[in-house]
Amino acid sequence: MMGNNKTVFKFFTIPQYQQEEDYLSAMNEKGWRFTRVTFPGFYHFEKSEPERFAYRLDYNQEGIRNKAEYVQMFSDCGWEYICDFAGYSYFRKEGVVGEEREEIFCDNASRLDMMKRAYRGKIIPVILLFALVIISQLFMNTLGNALGGYSGFIAMEILSFIFLGLAIVYLVFFSITTAHYYKYEKQISGDSSGFRLNYAGVFVLIVAMIAIIGVVFWFTYRWSSYTTTEIDNGYVNGYVVEAKMLNTSVIKEYDLKKGDSIEFHIVELKRGHLQLSVTENGKAPVFFCDVYNWGYHAYTIQNDGHYLIEITGKSVTGGIEVTIE
């Protein structure tokens, strides 16, 4: 809030458009005249004298495309056009509010038709976005972590949680909006077996989405938490690490001299992501590399000291020989 201007964050679902209208009217009576709304729900007001204004919303894409005629039609009936936001057009008219509210719709069927236009224009695209983008990315990143390969990067783990958060936000928004819409349409159209059947299908879809997300993360947790590692110290100058599913770090410590060589021989890497590092005790790593398949890596010690040799696995199945010469 700054002087004669005020911004308030409010959230209304599609079926709560009348609550939104009443809220704007109440703010006007308190001396704050509505000027515009911006994403994701910031309502902007300017200081004014307390006034009694009725506010109305309409969702009409055809009307917005023919803006001049659309606004003029409302103006002829005494409604002042304010702004458009997310497909909605906002109007106000000085006069009574509350129980004697003047409507821009002639009957309940017209109100319900507006609600259906808003639902088709706003919620269905959200559902498609959720199904095609959020869930698909959730599968790619989460299952990618479990199955290894390049998806084993830590960035993919972060992305998995980001997409999980988006999935939860979408599901909560979709569920709340659908519940409000169900109550609104039931109030206007009445109850029937066909009506209940339609909404039963919607809520089955919601439950199915929740179940899919749950199965993905359950599978990932079970897969990623499985760690079986065998370490063979029979080597005179080194050791071998073999794993059926390595999701941890294997650390060995050695006192090494300048000129000593540490060699990593990737015997077999069937899946997953390995990170190899050599660190002088208490300092930054002197050697680091990522491994996604078989290969050979080596590092020559530059200074005498105590060193940590670390092999970190991410869903790794395979073996690696470490020799020190």
Structure keywords:
elongated; seven-stranded antiparallel beta sheet; 3 domains; about 325 residues; 6 helices; three-stranded antiparallel beta sheet
Offer a concise description of the structure.
The protein is an alpha+beta fold and 325 residues long. The protein has six helices and 13 strands. The longest helix has 40 residues, at 108-147.
Description:
- The chain is an alpha+beta fold.
- It is elongated and about 95 Å long.
- Strands 7, 8, 9, 10, 11, 12 and 13 form a 7-stranded antiparallel β-sheet that branches.
- About 3% of the residues have low confidence.
- The protein folds into 3 domains: 96 residues, no CATH class; 117 residues; 97 residues, Jelly Rolls (Sandwich).
- The chain is 42% helix and 35% strand.
Runs in which pLDDT lies below 50 for 5 or more consecutive residues are 145-153
Radius of gyration: 31 Å
Q: Roughly what percent helix? A: 40-55%
Strand content: 25-35%
Give the ordered list of helices and strands: EHEEEHHEEHHHEEEEEEE
The count of β-strands is 13
State the end-to-end CA separation: 70 Å
Mean pLDDT: 77
Question: What is the overall shape?
Answer: elongated
Largest sheet: 7 strands, antiparallel
Domain count: 3
Kindly name the structural category.
Answer: alpha+beta
**Individual helix count:** 6
Layout of strands and helices, then pairs:
Elements: E1 5-9, H1 17-29, E2 32-38, E3 42-47, E4 53-59, H2 61-65, H3 67-76, E5 80-85, E6 88-94, H4 108-147, H5 154-189, H6 193-224, E7 228-232, E8 238-246, E9 249-256, E10 261-280, E11 285-291, E12 295-300, E13 305-324
Antiparallel strand pairs: 1-3, 2-3, 4-6, 5-6, 7-8, 8-13, 9-13, 10-11, 10-12, 10-13
Helix pairs in contact: 4-5, 4-6, 5-6
